[in-house]
TrEMBL record:
InterPro entries per the UniProt record, alphabetical: AB_hydrolase_fold, PhoPQ-act_pathogen-rel_PqaA
Name listed for the protein in its UniProt record: PhoPQ-regulated protein
Keyword Membrane: yes
SUPFAM superfamilies: alpha/beta-Hydrolases (SSF53474)
Keywords recorded for this protein, A-Z: Membrane, Transmembrane, Transmembrane helix
Membrane-traversing stretches: 26-44
């Protein structure tokens, strides 16, 4: 729309000159029109596209806005050490990605991550692979050091060496264990995710940042900032993201929130169009939920799937809900989707609800 205004502006200026109007008058008209056009663009950008100023608007801006806000803060990280491996050098960093505790309801609030960068002897420039990794870094509120289980060091070093690609592992996504206000039990993985959803749905307008998916994506984005800063020798400026399960979900949402993501490879997160997918899972299990859904059942999520507050939650956490928003082009980046035929959570045909709707280059593999 703004381009159309500029085109009309240029056309009018040309017409005025052709008619012999004074240059002063032409300039005046052009300036007035440009001012009006800019104001229109600003209104569209702030109020229609992003809808930041209206509580009635959808929440599709919440995740990108939070990531952008955090990306504007000073980056806090430390190089721990550098270690040689076979044909690969690995740099170990500690990253403090953010302080996340909506309404002061979550502890620990400071998110910490191990970021390991694998650099092969002959590394390709410009692009890097980012692996969203798991891990446990808090035990009873005390920081501990643990190793991720999704992608161990041997696997990451092998990928880097065999492909001549810089590989970045971001561990402890999410940070865990976390304790939510008034809860006595520290939570991890699906327990933390489901609890954050339940708290969001209690007061969605006041707790827009409560879904755990939001800081998970933002932590990944901060790790990419670190990589760009530390890997200037290789001009790394864009990233391919991969992760499994909840880290696969983070992979999807990073495509929406971070423009430095150029392609994604999500593993085992067959839950786009989440309401239709959940209903299909429930019916496929004969009116029951798989055992892995228990944390969500325990938080009463199953009873809220058709509620207005769950609709608001979907606008943040469901990648498919970003269709028909300004973020739709981000869904068009290349996608290599890998799902499991024997997943203990998802049924093997959930893709029928979303795959055909995804824009851009895409490929699906079920193993």
């Amino acid at each position: 729309m703004f381009k159309r205004y500029l085109w009309k502006l240029c056309w009018l200026a040309f017409a005025l000159v052709k008619r012999g109007e004074s240059m002063k008058k032409t300039y005046l008209v052009v300036i007035v029109l440009f001012f009006i056009s800019t104001k229109v663009y600003t209104l569209l950008h702030n109020n229609i596209f992003f809808c930041r100023n209206s509580p009635e608007c959808d929440l599709s801006h919440v995740l990108p806005d939070y990531r952008e806000q955090i990306s504007g803060t000073p980056l806090k990280y430390t190089l721990i050490n550098t270690a040689p491996l076979a044909q690969v050098v690995v740099r170990h960093y500690e990253l403090l990605s953010q302080h996340w505790s909506p309404d002061d309801m979550v502890t620990p609030a400071q998110w910490r991550h191990n970021v390991d960068i694998y650099i092969p002897e002959t590394a390709k420039e410009h692009h890097a692979l980012v692996v969203v990794n798991n891990g446990i870094n808090y035990d009873k509120g005390v920081q501990i050091t643990g190793k991720p289980g999704d992608f161990p060091q041997e696997t990451l070093a092998s990928i880097s060496r065999d492909t001549n690609t810089i590989v970045i592992s971001v561990s402890d996504i999410p940070n865990q264990y976390l304790t939510f206000q008034d809860d006595k039990k520290p939570l991890k993985e699906d327990e933390s995710v489901s609890r954050s959803w339940a708290l969001f749905m209690e007061a969605p307008e006041q707790r827009k940042l409560m879904p755990l998916n939001i800081p998970m994506v933002t932590a990944l984005s901060q790790a990419m900032r670190l990589a760009k800063k530390e890997l200037t020798q290789w001009n790394i400026n864009s990233f391919i993201i991969t992760g499994i399960s909840k880290r696969g979900w983070t992979t999807w949402l990073s495509a929406i929130a971070d423009p430095d993501v150029e392609a994604i490879v999500p593993f085992a997160i067959d839950l786009l169009d989440i309401d239709a997918s959940l209903e299909h899972i429930y019916q496929s299990y004969g009116g029951n939920w798989p055992i892995t859904f228990y944390p969500y059942y325990q938080q009463g999520i199953d009873e809220k799937i058709k509620s207005p507050t769950f609709t608001q939650l979907r606008q943040i956490i469901d990648p498919l809900r970003y269709l028909n928003t300004i973020y739709q082009p981000r869904l068009a980046i290349p996608k290599y989707i890998i799902n499991a035929s024997g997943d203990d959570f998802f049924v093997p045909d959930n893709t029928r609800f979303y795959y055909s709707k995804l824009p851009g280059v895409k490929s699906l593999r079920i193993v």
